[in-house]
Amino acid sequence: MEPIEAQKVVKQLESWLNSEVFVHLEVNPGAYWRSGKGKLKRVHVKGDGPLRVFLEFEDAGLIHVDDLTHMQVDGDMVICTGYDHHDRIARTLEVSTRAFPI
Hints:
The chain is mainly beta. The protein has one helix at 6-14; strands at residues 2-3, 20-27, 31-46, 51-57, 61-68, 70-74, 77-83, 89-96. The chain is 9% helix and 60% strand.
């Protein structure tokens, strides 16, 4: 993982606009959603330090994740994570063109 860069995240996610993507969302402690899918309609990435990522889906709603600090971007997946004050992963957003194994 490397420090998050808004432009890299936006560029990859926007390349999937109007395509079906799969989402893994995890917030520790307390929430987990794996291999949700939807047609990506809009992407918004906001902030100067930790970033906020908003994903809008056609007929499927909106996902908003804040305090993201690190990323990994490759051809078919974007992973964004945020760490808490103890350097533990507090949140993860993964978006992929392929379904995640369950």
